[in-house]
Amino acid sequence: AQKVTQAQTEISVVEKEDVTLDCVYETRDTTYYLFWYKQPPSGELVFLIRRNSFDEQNEISGRYSWNFQKSTSSFNFTITASQVVDSAVYFCALSEALFMDSSYKLIFGSGTRLLVRP
Amino acid sequence: DADVTQTPRNRITKTGKRIMLECSQTKGHDRMYWYRQDPGLGLQLIYYSFDVKDINKGEISDGYSVSRQAQAKFSLSLESAIPNQTALYFCATSDFFVTSPGELFFGEGSRLTVL
Questions:
Q1: Distance (Å, rounded) from C-alpha A105 to C-alpha B45?
Q2: Tens digit of pLDDT for each residue in A44-81?
Q3: B7-46 as b/e, with b when 16 or more CB fall inside 10 Å?
Q4: pLDDT above 80 for B99
Q5: Three-state SS at A118
Q6: In chain A, which residues touch B (CB < 8 A)?
């Protein structure tokens, strides 16, 4: 069965520290997609990134970077020089193929709460 | 205005009452979803719909029903609410791509408390 594990329930860092959020997944699909979403204290869910299983290149967007390693079934998220505004719950998600017509649904991990202290 | 709007944003109800959460979207997406968020459990899929005549159960559909009244509207009902349905509920939409899943666009959430 498809599964996403975010083993870190809560992380606390001091501003300007780098922090990595771990995501490990299990899937039976040969083609799949991985996502990260951010949920700030206001409660909404914000899309951060989508990565397909054929693209193992690391991605960088400003202070955010993602490391996808198929060999270890991991899709880790690093925030460099963290800021107080990065405080949020971060969810990793995995696509699950539903039908042969390429329909999918998303399976979410339980989330990691990041607290960045001034 | 938000692209995905949920009403009500907060509701307190009593055990046994019927409650409906409504979702409307202006993104023009065919695909709509209802998720439930509980602390420490992430988001779990309740129901999803890929078009107006399509309804599918998710991981935790027991105790819930849905109605897709139009492309833009997808409502979630609790016929007889119970306290363990106290949670934060999210509606989401996505576009359809032939070869990949689109990102989900979420509403702001509806916090339901069942006493």
A1: 9
A2: 899 999 998 888 888 888 999 999 999 999 999 999 99
A3: eeeebebeeeeebebbbbbeeebbbbbbbbbeeeebbbbb
A4: no
A5: coil
A6: 4, 6, 9, 33, 35, 37, 43-45, 47, 50, 52, 91, 95, 102-106, 108-111
